[in-house]
Write a structure and sequence with these properties.
This protein has 302 residues and is an alpha/beta fold. It is 41% helix and 23% strand. The strands form 5 sheets. The protein has a 5-stranded mixed sheet with strand order 4-3-5-14-6, with helices on one face. The protein has a 3-stranded antiparallel sheet with strand order 12-7-13. Strands 1-2 form a two-stranded antiparallel ribbon. α1 crosses α2 and α1 packs across α4.
Length: 302
Protein backbone atom coordinates (compact mmCIF):
# COMPACT_ATOMS: atom_id res chain seq x y z
CA UNK A 1 0.00 0.00 0.00
CA UNK A 2 1.18 3.50 -0.89
CA UNK A 3 0.66 5.13 2.50
CA UNK A 4 0.77 8.69 1.19
CA UNK A 5 -1.71 7.86 -1.56
CA UNK A 6 -4.01 6.27 1.01
CA UNK A 7 -3.64 9.24 3.33
CA UNK A 8 -4.47 11.67 0.53
CA UNK A 9 -7.46 9.58 -0.56
CA UNK A 10 -8.78 9.56 3.00
CA UNK A 11 -8.41 13.34 3.32
CA UNK A 12 -10.25 13.86 0.03
CA UNK A 13 -13.12 11.58 1.10
CA UNK A 14 -13.51 13.47 4.38
CA UNK A 15 -13.44 16.87 2.67
CA UNK A 16 -15.74 16.01 -0.22
CA UNK A 17 -18.10 13.76 1.76
CA UNK A 18 -18.29 11.06 -0.92
CA UNK A 19 -16.01 8.47 -2.50
CA UNK A 20 -17.20 9.55 -5.95
CA UNK A 21 -16.13 13.21 -5.55
CA UNK A 22 -12.86 12.18 -3.93
CA UNK A 23 -12.08 9.89 -6.87
CA UNK A 24 -12.86 12.68 -9.35
CA UNK A 25 -10.60 15.11 -7.50
CA UNK A 26 -7.75 12.60 -7.41
CA UNK A 27 -8.23 11.39 -10.99
CA UNK A 28 -8.56 7.80 -9.81
CA UNK A 29 -11.28 5.17 -10.23
CA UNK A 30 -13.73 5.07 -7.33
CA UNK A 31 -12.82 1.41 -6.72
CA UNK A 32 -9.17 2.37 -6.29
CA UNK A 33 -10.02 5.01 -3.69
CA UNK A 34 -12.23 2.55 -1.82
CA UNK A 35 -9.44 -0.02 -1.84
CA UNK A 36 -6.92 2.49 -0.49
CA UNK A 37 -9.21 3.39 2.42
CA UNK A 38 -9.83 -0.27 3.21
CA UNK A 39 -6.09 -0.96 3.19
CA UNK A 40 -5.45 2.06 5.41
CA UNK A 41 -8.05 0.92 7.96
CA UNK A 42 -6.59 -2.59 7.90
CA UNK A 43 -3.07 -1.22 8.42
CA UNK A 44 -4.18 0.99 11.32
CA UNK A 45 -6.63 -1.61 12.70
CA UNK A 46 -9.20 1.10 13.30
CA UNK A 47 -12.44 2.21 11.66
CA UNK A 48 -11.95 5.64 10.08
CA UNK A 49 -15.25 6.07 8.25
CA UNK A 50 -18.87 5.01 8.62
CA UNK A 51 -20.33 4.25 5.19
CA UNK A 52 -23.98 3.96 4.16
CA UNK A 53 -25.59 4.04 0.73
CA UNK A 54 -26.35 7.75 1.23
CA UNK A 55 -23.46 9.29 3.14
CA UNK A 56 -19.99 8.95 4.60
CA UNK A 57 -19.26 10.14 8.15
CA UNK A 58 -16.00 10.29 10.06
CA UNK A 59 -15.45 8.31 13.25
CA UNK A 60 -13.77 10.04 16.22
CA UNK A 61 -10.59 8.09 15.44
CA UNK A 62 -10.97 9.08 11.80
CA UNK A 63 -11.19 12.77 12.69
CA UNK A 64 -7.99 12.55 14.74
CA UNK A 65 -6.25 10.82 11.85
CA UNK A 66 -7.64 13.36 9.38
CA UNK A 67 -6.25 16.34 11.31
CA UNK A 68 -2.79 14.79 11.56
CA UNK A 69 -2.83 13.57 7.95
CA UNK A 70 -3.80 17.04 6.76
CA UNK A 71 -0.84 18.52 8.60
CA UNK A 72 1.61 15.92 7.28
CA UNK A 73 0.43 16.17 3.68
CA UNK A 74 0.62 19.97 3.91
CA UNK A 75 4.21 19.78 5.12
CA UNK A 76 5.14 17.38 2.31
CA UNK A 77 3.55 19.62 -0.32
CA UNK A 78 5.24 22.67 1.15
CA UNK A 79 8.63 20.93 1.02
CA UNK A 80 8.08 19.82 -2.58
CA UNK A 81 6.82 23.25 -3.61
CA UNK A 82 9.78 24.99 -1.98
CA UNK A 83 12.28 22.77 -3.80
CA UNK A 84 10.42 23.11 -7.09
CA UNK A 85 10.09 26.87 -6.75
CA UNK A 86 13.77 27.22 -5.92
CA UNK A 87 14.71 25.31 -9.06
CA UNK A 88 12.25 26.59 -11.68
CA UNK A 89 9.58 28.76 -10.06
CA UNK A 90 6.10 27.80 -8.88
CA UNK A 91 4.13 25.50 -11.14
CA UNK A 92 0.83 23.66 -11.01
CA UNK A 93 -2.89 24.33 -11.29
CA UNK A 94 -5.01 26.70 -9.22
CA UNK A 95 -8.80 26.23 -9.22
CA UNK A 96 -10.56 29.57 -8.63
CA UNK A 97 -14.23 30.58 -8.40
CA UNK A 98 -15.41 34.12 -9.09
CA UNK A 99 -18.46 36.00 -10.34
CA UNK A 100 -18.96 36.75 -14.01
CA UNK A 101 -18.37 40.49 -13.81
CA UNK A 102 -15.28 40.30 -11.61
CA UNK A 103 -13.86 37.55 -13.84
CA UNK A 104 -14.64 39.38 -17.08
CA UNK A 105 -13.69 42.91 -16.08
CA UNK A 106 -10.95 42.51 -13.45
CA UNK A 107 -9.35 39.05 -13.30
CA UNK A 108 -9.14 37.88 -16.93
CA UNK A 109 -7.79 41.18 -18.38
CA UNK A 110 -4.99 41.14 -15.78
CA UNK A 111 -4.00 37.47 -16.21
CA UNK A 112 -1.26 38.19 -18.79
CA UNK A 113 0.72 39.87 -16.02
CA UNK A 114 0.27 36.78 -13.83
CA UNK A 115 1.48 34.42 -16.56
CA UNK A 116 4.40 36.71 -17.39
CA UNK A 117 5.50 36.38 -13.78
CA UNK A 118 4.62 32.69 -13.35
CA UNK A 119 4.70 31.03 -16.80
CA UNK A 120 4.40 27.49 -15.44
CA UNK A 121 1.18 28.12 -13.53
CA UNK A 122 -2.26 27.14 -14.81
CA UNK A 123 -5.51 28.80 -13.69
CA UNK A 124 -8.86 27.02 -13.84
CA UNK A 125 -11.48 29.75 -13.42
CA UNK A 126 -15.03 28.78 -12.51
CA UNK A 127 -17.35 31.68 -13.39
CA UNK A 128 -20.63 31.90 -11.49
CA UNK A 129 -22.48 33.96 -8.88
CA UNK A 130 -23.18 30.69 -7.06
CA UNK A 131 -21.49 30.19 -3.68
CA UNK A 132 -19.60 26.89 -3.93
CA UNK A 133 -18.35 24.62 -1.15
CA UNK A 134 -14.60 24.93 -1.60
CA UNK A 135 -13.74 21.59 -0.02
CA UNK A 136 -16.39 19.37 -1.58
CA UNK A 137 -15.97 21.01 -5.01
CA UNK A 138 -12.15 20.85 -4.78
CA UNK A 139 -11.73 24.63 -5.22
CA UNK A 140 -8.53 26.26 -4.02
CA UNK A 141 -9.86 29.79 -3.52
CA UNK A 142 -12.83 32.02 -4.36
CA UNK A 143 -13.50 35.74 -4.71
CA UNK A 144 -16.77 36.56 -2.93
CA UNK A 145 -18.79 39.64 -2.17
CA UNK A 146 -20.53 40.02 1.20
CA UNK A 147 -19.81 38.76 4.68
CA UNK A 148 -17.90 35.47 4.98
CA UNK A 149 -20.02 33.21 7.19
CA UNK A 150 -17.85 30.10 6.99
CA UNK A 151 -15.40 30.50 9.87
CA UNK A 152 -13.32 27.55 8.65
CA UNK A 153 -12.02 29.65 5.73
CA UNK A 154 -9.24 32.22 5.67
CA UNK A 155 -10.63 35.52 4.33
CA UNK A 156 -8.45 38.27 2.82
CA UNK A 157 -10.26 41.61 2.41
CA UNK A 158 -9.75 42.94 -1.13
CA UNK A 159 -11.85 46.10 -0.91
CA UNK A 160 -15.46 47.27 -0.88
CA UNK A 161 -17.84 47.19 -3.83
CA UNK A 162 -19.55 50.56 -4.30
CA UNK A 163 -22.93 50.49 -6.02
CA UNK A 164 -24.99 52.99 -7.99
CA UNK A 165 -28.66 53.25 -9.04
CA UNK A 166 -29.41 53.71 -12.73
CA UNK A 167 -31.83 52.96 -15.55
CA UNK A 168 -31.83 52.91 -19.34
CA UNK A 169 -33.01 56.03 -21.24
CA UNK A 170 -35.88 54.05 -22.80
CA UNK A 171 -37.16 53.18 -19.32
CA UNK A 172 -36.91 56.80 -18.16
CA UNK A 173 -38.78 58.00 -21.28
CA UNK A 174 -41.72 55.76 -20.33
CA UNK A 175 -41.74 56.19 -16.54
CA UNK A 176 -39.75 59.31 -15.78
CA UNK A 177 -36.92 59.32 -13.19
CA UNK A 178 -37.85 58.28 -9.64
CA UNK A 179 -37.37 61.14 -7.17
CA UNK A 180 -37.58 59.16 -3.93
CA UNK A 181 -36.79 55.50 -3.13
CA UNK A 182 -40.36 54.78 -1.98
CA UNK A 183 -41.61 55.45 -5.51
CA UNK A 184 -40.02 52.16 -6.56
CA UNK A 185 -42.64 50.28 -4.52
CA UNK A 186 -45.52 52.10 -6.21
CA UNK A 187 -47.34 51.52 -9.50
CA UNK A 188 -45.31 54.01 -11.54
CA UNK A 189 -41.99 52.14 -11.49
CA UNK A 190 -40.48 48.68 -11.76
CA UNK A 191 -37.16 47.40 -10.48
CA UNK A 192 -34.92 44.59 -11.66
CA UNK A 193 -34.43 42.37 -8.65
CA UNK A 194 -31.64 40.01 -7.66
CA UNK A 195 -32.18 36.84 -5.66
CA UNK A 196 -29.72 34.95 -3.49
CA UNK A 197 -28.78 31.56 -4.93
CA UNK A 198 -28.33 29.85 -1.52
CA UNK A 199 -31.61 31.09 0.00
CA UNK A 200 -33.69 31.89 -3.09
CA UNK A 201 -34.80 35.13 -1.40
CA UNK A 202 -35.23 38.36 -3.33
CA UNK A 203 -32.83 41.01 -2.06
CA UNK A 204 -34.34 44.42 -1.20
CA UNK A 205 -32.97 47.69 -2.51
CA UNK A 206 -31.12 49.59 0.23
CA UNK A 207 -30.76 53.38 0.31
CA UNK A 208 -28.48 55.54 2.46
CA UNK A 209 -28.39 59.34 2.70
CA UNK A 210 -26.99 61.51 5.49
CA UNK A 211 -27.57 58.89 8.20
CA UNK A 212 -30.98 57.82 6.91
CA UNK A 213 -31.34 54.23 5.70
CA UNK A 214 -34.28 52.70 3.83
CA UNK A 215 -35.07 49.22 2.53
CA UNK A 216 -37.50 49.03 -0.38
CA UNK A 217 -38.85 45.84 -1.91
CA UNK A 218 -39.61 47.38 -5.28
CA UNK A 219 -42.26 46.27 -7.74
CA UNK A 220 -40.41 43.71 -9.84
CA UNK A 221 -41.31 41.96 -13.08
CA UNK A 222 -37.97 40.18 -13.42
CA UNK A 223 -35.65 38.65 -10.81
CA UNK A 224 -32.23 37.19 -11.65
CA UNK A 225 -29.27 35.66 -9.85
CA UNK A 226 -26.37 36.42 -12.23
CA UNK A 227 -24.82 39.85 -12.64
CA UNK A 228 -24.22 39.86 -16.41
CA UNK A 229 -27.84 38.88 -17.08
CA UNK A 230 -28.93 41.49 -14.52
CA UNK A 231 -26.96 44.16 -16.40
CA UNK A 232 -28.49 43.07 -19.72
CA UNK A 233 -31.97 43.47 -18.22
CA UNK A 234 -31.11 47.01 -17.14
CA UNK A 235 -29.79 47.89 -20.60
CA UNK A 236 -33.00 46.50 -22.10
CA UNK A 237 -35.01 49.05 -20.10
CA UNK A 238 -36.81 46.57 -17.86
CA UNK A 239 -36.53 48.66 -14.70
CA UNK A 240 -34.40 50.56 -12.23
CA UNK A 241 -31.28 48.61 -11.24
CA UNK A 242 -28.15 48.96 -9.19
CA UNK A 243 -24.72 47.40 -9.71
CA UNK A 244 -21.07 47.96 -8.78
CA UNK A 245 -19.64 51.18 -10.18
CA UNK A 246 -16.82 49.42 -12.02
CA UNK A 247 -19.47 47.49 -13.96
CA UNK A 248 -21.59 50.55 -14.78
CA UNK A 249 -18.85 53.07 -15.67
CA UNK A 250 -18.65 52.43 -19.46
CA UNK A 251 -22.45 52.37 -19.86
CA UNK A 252 -22.92 55.59 -17.88
CA UNK A 253 -20.18 57.23 -19.95
CA UNK A 254 -21.82 56.16 -23.23
CA UNK A 255 -25.32 57.17 -22.14
CA UNK A 256 -26.68 53.60 -22.36
CA UNK A 257 -27.52 53.95 -18.66
CA UNK A 258 -28.41 57.07 -16.67
CA UNK A 259 -27.80 57.59 -12.95
CA UNK A 260 -30.97 58.03 -10.86
CA UNK A 261 -31.79 58.84 -7.24
CA UNK A 262 -28.70 61.02 -6.89
CA UNK A 263 -27.70 61.46 -3.26
CA UNK A 264 -28.94 58.02 -2.25
CA UNK A 265 -26.32 55.29 -1.99
CA UNK A 266 -26.86 51.52 -1.85
CA UNK A 267 -25.07 49.52 0.85
CA UNK A 268 -21.43 48.77 -0.02
CA UNK A 269 -20.38 45.11 0.00
CA UNK A 270 -16.99 43.91 1.20
CA UNK A 271 -15.05 41.77 -1.27
CA UNK A 272 -12.96 38.84 0.01
CA UNK A 273 -10.58 36.22 -1.30
CA UNK A 274 -11.31 33.05 0.70
CA UNK A 275 -9.49 29.72 0.88
CA UNK A 276 -9.15 26.72 3.21
CA UNK A 277 -6.22 27.20 5.61
CA UNK A 278 -4.67 23.84 4.67
CA UNK A 279 -4.32 24.95 1.03
CA UNK A 280 -2.15 27.98 1.81
CA UNK A 281 0.90 25.71 2.09
CA UNK A 282 0.81 25.21 -1.67
CA UNK A 283 3.34 27.54 -3.31
CA UNK A 284 1.26 27.94 -6.47
CA UNK A 285 -1.80 29.03 -4.53
CA UNK A 286 0.29 31.39 -2.40
CA UNK A 287 1.61 33.25 -5.43
CA UNK A 288 -1.89 33.49 -6.92
CA UNK A 289 -3.29 34.85 -3.64
CA UNK A 290 -0.49 37.43 -3.44
CA UNK A 291 -1.11 38.42 -7.07
CA UNK A 292 -4.86 38.91 -6.51
CA UNK A 293 -4.26 40.99 -3.36
CA UNK A 294 -1.75 43.12 -5.29
CA UNK A 295 -4.24 43.47 -8.16
CA UNK A 296 -6.92 44.92 -5.90
CA UNK A 297 -4.67 47.02 -3.66
CA UNK A 298 -5.32 50.70 -4.13
CA UNK A 299 -8.24 50.30 -6.53
CA UNK A 300 -10.64 53.22 -6.20
CA UNK A 301 -13.23 52.23 -8.82
CA UNK A 302 -14.81 49.18 -7.19
Amino acid sequence: MDRFAAMEAFVRVVESGTFTKAAEALGRPKAAVTRLIQQLEAQLRVKLLHRTTRRVTVTPEGMTYYQQALRLLGEVRELESTLTQTRRGPRGRVRVESSGTISRLLIVPALPSFYARYPQMQVELGVSDRVVDLLSDNVDCAIRGGAVKDESLVARHLGDLRYQFCAAPRYLERHGPPRHPQELAGPSHTVISYFSSPSGKQLPFTFNREGERLEVQGRSLLTLNETNAYLAAGLAGLGVMYAPRFVLEPYLASGELVSVLEGWQPDARPLFLVYPPARQRDAGLRVFIDWVVELFTGRTNL
